[in-house]
Each structure stands twice: as structure tokens, then as C-alpha cells.
TrEMBL record:
Organism ancestry: Eukaryota, Metazoa, Spiralia, Gnathifera, Rotifera
Organism in which the protein naturally occurs: Adineta steineri
Protein name, UniProt field: Uncharacterized protein
Keyword Transferase recorded: yes
Gene Ontology MF, one: acyltransferase activity, transferring groups other than amino-acyl groups
Keyword line: Transferase
Length: 396
């Protein structure tokens, strides 16, 4: 395990292809949490010193000032039930960090009957796996429980996993001249969010899933892609592009304690006529097979070679294909296996966790864990407002 001083400070190939943005999370507790400033800063100094650094020229550098990591506000006149979490901006920093923004922040809002923790981390510092495990281990450390808390901060480990040559066609990425503005197609539309809970067995029974090897995630992706494309009235010859990130740590043989980004992408194109004519069971098989192809050691090592090749070209930048997703395409982000409902600050887990949407993106679906256990998920489906009403009729 690397120490705080013996680390590679250069960002990895996985770090500098992710967006320059904050990953943000709200944890809502129905009890008042004592001031977290001193324990938080002590924990970060010991276990995540990179939280105090800056990012410049794809490197983690020492900060010349002291970034404001912790803030606290108290509002004893407001209760949790009276606060509209989905439409209230509690965060001290915007979605996009600037040169003065910290790489990690925690804002503690104390209310009359509870606490909201608004937490953010620079995406180029770590991915969702690293982010949630950082907060979870902080809560465990606060409790005094003895578990391994050290993270692996040596980002050069990713470089060592890069294949010598590109072995596959990597449709999940695209490259552009970085001197030009990225040609991201993201038309502005008014969106709204549908929130739904589903238990695995209930959904499988409802959709007549008979395939034995498909996962809960496979079925969710297939089902939602089919019904959302239907309410969007996608033309029959159109290809609906579906994408999702995946954690590459286990596949590459990296320890789960590796703290930098280890995110790779799965891209699945569906012809609309196939979505219309196929059952959810058949589409789930397709998702499963496509996902398996992208989750092998050889494929991910080849993806690193592809990223390296395209980022070493003069003025060339590489992006996940998600950035080019248009009005008919769908992006999934699955956080359901993260220990979000195990983050306990003394009197129980959060009563709710919430990932605020970014840029009100049409076609973004977050899959979160449920407080009720492993076999239930909470879906946040963000769509064009004109399609939300139609989808609600189907979901009933």
C-alpha cells in the first residue's frame, strides 16, 4: 500500500479522460450529527492527502493556499420534511470546479430534526467507487471500528496494465482535435425526473425473465431502453446508443483500495426495430453478451492502449462516446453496489441518498441502492418533460 509521500503524482490514463466536474452526493440523516470538521481533516490528512492538492497539467500538485474543504451551516427553523431536496441547491460549489475549488468538499447542514451532508469530489481525483469508499471509511473510522483504511494512491499502476498494441475497435470512445470545441450534441430541453423503486424478483416476474444468467442490471438496461425508446417515438431505422461506465479494478487485477479512476465504458447500439420486436428477456441477453465482451482483461488493457495512443497525438483529446449522445440515446450509471446506506455517523444510516443530476441531461438514468436491501434499487430517470407523462403511464 503506498504511503502519503511515495506516490506517482501524475494523473493516469483513466483520470484525464473523465469530465472536469464534481461527482456530488447528498446524504440525508434524521438525526443531528456533531461538527465533522476536525475528524474529517484528520482523516483526510492520514488516508487521502491528495484531497488537499490541486490539479494542473494532468498532475496532482501541492496547493499554495488552503482549500476550503469543510463548511457548516445551521438552520434550526427548517425541517427535513419541508425541504425540497430535488430542487434545493445545498452545495457550496457549482457542478464544474475551477482553479480555486478544492478537490474534495463536505458541507454539513444542520436542521431542526436532522443533518444533510452535501459532499463532492473532483472526478479526476477518483471515480464513484473511490468516492463512496472514502466517505464510508471515514464513517467507520469515526466509529472506532478497526478495518483496513489505507487506499492505494499509486496511479502508475494503471500505466502498467496497458497493452502494447490496440487489439479491438473501441467504439466506446472518440477522439477530437483539442484545439477545437468538442462537438458534443446536447440540445437544451426541459427535463424532469421519475423516481421508482424495484425489487429484483418482482421485476423479473413482471417481465417474464427466464434467462438464468442475466443480472438485475442487464434487465434494467434492456427494459428501460425498450420502454423509453417507445415513448420517445424513435424512428424504426434509428440506432439507439446505450452506454454505461464499469469498474475495471477486479478485471485488471488491481486492489479494490486503488483510489484513482479505474472507469471503463460499455457501448451497446440497438436498432429501434429490434427494440420493438424483441422481448425484454431477449434484450437482456443481448446486454449481457455485449457487457461480457467489454469486461475482459484483454479488452480493457487494449482500451488503455487506445487511450494512450490518442492522447499522445499532438492536440488530440479522447472522450467517452457518452459526450456525443443525442436525443434518442440513454446513459446508465449504476451505484447500487456501493455501501451508501452503510455510512453511519452514530445513530443509523442515512434515511435517503441522492445524486443530483448534472446539466439536466435528457436520457440519464442513475441506479442507486435502496435502504431496504441488496435486491431492491432506486431509479432516477431523467427525461424530456414531454415524455415523462407517457412513461409514467407505462410504469404504473
Amino acid at each position: 500500500m503506498s504511503s502519503a509521500t511515495n506516490v506517482d503524482e501524475k494523473l493516469s490514463l483513466c483520470d484525464f479522460i473523465v469530465p472536469v466536474s464534481y461527482t456530488r452526493l447528498l446524504l440525508i440523516y434524521d438525526y443531528v450529527i456533531h461538527d465533522l470538521e476536525k475528524p474529517l481533516l484528520k482523516f483526510l490528512y492520514n488516508y487521502c492527502p491528495s484531497a488537499f492538492k490541486r490539479i494542473s497539467d494532468n498532475k496532482l500538485i501541492d496547493s499554495t493556499d488552503h482549500p476550503t474543504i469543510y463548511t457548516h451551516a445551521i438552520d434550526r427553523n427548517t425541517s427535513l420534511s419541508s425541504l425540497d431536496i430535488e430542487h434545493t441547491d445545498i452545495f457550496p460549489y457549482g457542478r464544474i470546479p475551477d482553479k480555486e475549488s478544492p478537490l474534495f468538499f463536505l458541507h454539513q447542514l444542520t436542521l431542526k430534526d436532522g443533518t444533510i451532508l452535501a459532499i463532492g469530489i473532483h472526478h479526476r481525483l477518483t471515480d464513484g467507487h473511490g468516492f463512496i469508499n472514502l466517505i464510508y471509511r471515514f464513517s467507520v473510522w469515526m466509529s472506532g471500528e478497526q478495518i483496513p483504511l489505507l487506499f492505494e494512491h499509486n496511479r502508475s499502476l494503471i500505466k502498467k496494465k496497458t497493452a502494447p498494441t490496440i487489439l479491438y475497435q473501441h467504439r466506446e470512445y472518440y477522439s477530437e482535435d483539442s484545439l477545437l470545441l468538442p462537438s458534443i450534441y446536447c440540445p437544451h430541453v426541459e427535463t424532469d425526473v421519475i423516481v421508482r423503486h424495484y425489487k429484483k424478483q418482482d421485476l423479473f416476474n413482471m417481465l417474464n425473465i427466464t434467462s438464468k444468467h442475466v443480472s438485475f442490471n442487464d434487465v434494467l438496461v434492456a427494459w428501460l431502453t425498450k420502454i423509453i425508446s417507445s415513448v420517445r417515438h424513435v424512428p424504426s431505422k434509428t440506432i439507439v446508443k446505450v452506454g454505461m461506465p464499469t469498474n475495471g479494478r477486479n478485471i485488471l487485477g488491481l486492489d479494490e483500495n486503488y483510489f484513482g479512476n479505474c472507469v471503463f465504458y460499455i457501448y451497446i447500439p440497438f436498432l429501434m426495430t429490434d427494440l420493438e420486436s424483441s422481448s425484454v428477456d431477449e434484450l437482456s441477453e443481448r446486454v449481457h453478451e455485449e457487457r461480457k465482451k467489454c469486461m475482459t482483461k484483454a479488452y480493457i488493457e487494449s482500451a488503455l492502449a487506445y487511450i494512450k495512443c490518442n492522447t499522445t497525438k499532438s492536440h488530440s483529446s479522447i472522450y467517452p462516446i457518452f459526450n456525443r449522445f443525442g436525443e434518442y440515446d440513454i446513459a446508465f450509471s449504476n451505484w447500487s453496489r456501493f455501501p451508501m446506506y452503510q455510512i453511519d455517523f452514530g445513530h443509523g444510516p442515512p434515511k435517503r441518498v441522492f445524486l443530483p443530476p448534472g446539466k439536466r441531461r435528457n436520457g440519464m438514468i442513475n441506479i442507486l441502492p435502496s435502504i431496504d436491501g441488496d435486491n431492491e434499487v432506486e431509479l432516477y430517470i431523467r427525461l424530456n418533460q414531454i415524455h415523462v407523462k407517457e412513461l409514467l403511464k407505462i410504469l404504473k
